[in-house]
Amino acid sequence: MGCGENKGPKDLWYVGVILTIIGSIATNMGVNLQKFSFMREAKNRSATEKRSYVRQPLWVIGFLLVVGGSVLDFVALGFLPQSMATPVGGSTMVANVVFASLFLKEKFTRSDAIGTALVMTGIIIVAIFAEKESACYTVHELVALYRKPLFAVYAVVIGLSCISLYLLSKKMERVLKEKGKSSPEYKRFAKLHPVSYPALSGLFGAQSVLFAKSMAELVKTTFEGENQFVTFGAYAITLSMLSCVFLQIHWLAHGLQHFDAVFVVPVFQCFFISISILGGGIYFNEFAHMKPLALIMFSLGAIITISGVVKLAHREMNKLSPIRRMRAAASMLRFIHRCQKARKIKPRWSVVGEEAKFIDNGVPQMHTKKQTSPAENSSSPRSPRFGQRSKASVLPVGPTAMSVLTASAVVTPAPTPDDHRETCEEAESSTSTIGRGQKEDSSPATK
Q1: Are the C-beta atoms of residues 114 and 44 closer than 8 Å to each other?
Q2: The dihedral of CA 140, 143, 149, 154: what is its sign?
Q3: Which residues, 6 or more positions from 273, have their beta carbon under 8 angstroms from its beta carbon?
Q4: Structural domain includes residue 331
Q5: How confident is the model over 24-49, as a mean pLDDT?
Q6: In this structure, are residues 290 and 132 in contact, taking their beta carbons and an 8 Å threshold?
Q7: What is the pTM of this model?
Q8: pLDDT averaged over the chain?
Q9: CA 201, CA 312: separation in Å to the nearest integer?
Q10: Quick check: 270 and 195 in contact, CB under 8 A?
Q11: Pair (396, 299) in one structural domain
């Protein structure tokens, strides 16, 4: 990996490709573990008991995988130019489908397949026609590249984009918390909200690659015998790289907390790869030696990639299929029917003597049972025998209710359909009065 005239790393480009693929898979596995950690935290803990993501063990493991993948990507930059190394990282799109289905049980739809295929096609085209030459730089040369007018325009556009996406995400979080998804304020930017988090993460990730490539150049030059870490510029580049890596992970974590990984990761990869190629071309002047055909195909690849992102952006989060919606509706109807049926049942005893009838205020009141003729008695269906309990009774009678009964042998008739239509509130009143009677008299009830 020397910087001499004939010591370029072109003969070891395959090492950089392998390291980039392994790093991309590790990064994607870590991202899906972080999403799985958020899902398990939301399922097992209440809103007040939820831990921050830095206190969740699975999230920490995912974070370590993301960091490890980033380290491998950094090493790969020593073997590959930025415009070639970054698109190869698009192999994480394939791993994302596997890990999202394995850990998160997220369904990969036909629309997701089309969007992912478009993104992958665009990435491949960009990688084929991107500049593959890589030069070596000292710290003074790298600092001079930051002062170019074209890079200054690039930096202003990226800065304004980050500020706009940050303000949009915070506004949507506030509206979502105060007014909900159905509010007009949220619906106005509902399609941009899910894009804001991975877009921010991708923008910061692209800058981290730019600074990481600069760091790799400084390390290569240092290995050649010229120590580059003796000036403030080298440490400023290092600090900028670490800051961008942190912001990349932070906003990616926020995106995974709110939306599906099958959506967040492709959008992140699109911004990450596209802006990385653009930044590398502007900063390292990699577009200067591109032929017209290569420049046209490069632009075509970028357009195809953006089309894939638009396709993925129309994916609705956590939407039930029609069959699942029908099953949920049928279950709800069965539940409502059972509740209505249960409310029609009133606890009742048939007792001898005078009936103890409970009024609304829960105080037992005596009234004499009307004597009926044998003909009337014969017309009532299956009148219960002396001392028999009716079929509608579900609760025992308490000692207080028994104390108001007389010794006469009049039997309460069986409940009629009108009795079953009495309200639940009367049954609850009777139950509460009986319960108070049981507490007042501790002697067992006898019939």
Answers
A1: no
A2: positive
A3: 86, 87, 89, 90, 123, 126, 305
A4: no
A5: 79
A6: no
A7: 0.58
A8: 72
A9: 17
A10: no
A11: no
Q: Which pair of structure tokens corresponds to residue 17?
A: 């490709």
Mean pLDDT of 368-377: 49
The sign one gets for the Cα dihedral 368, 373, 378, 380 is negative
**How much is the pLDDT for 59?**
86
Do the beta carbons of residue 216 and residue 134 sit within 8 Å?
A: no
CA dihedral 137, 122, 250, 248 (to 10 degrees): 10
Torsion of CA 82, 85, 88, 92, to 10 degrees: -90
Domain assignment of residue 25, yes or no: yes
CA angle 165, 166, 167 (to 5 degrees): 95
Considering the domain architecture, whether residues 264 and 350 belong to the same structural domain is answered as: no
Helix 13-44 and helix 92-103: axis angle, to 10°?
20
**Which class for 140: exposed (0-12), middle (13-18), buried (19 or more C-beta within 10 A)?**
exposed
3-state secondary structure 75-138: HHCCCCCHHHHHHHHHHHHHHHHHHHHHHCCCCCCHHHHHHHHHHHHHHHHHHHHCCCCCCCCC
The model's confidence at residue 357, banded by pLDDT at 50, 70 and 90, is very low
Closest C-alpha among 411, 414, 416, 426 to residue 346: 426
Dist CA 272 CA 204 (whole Å): 8
Domain with 155, as residue range(s), is 9-319
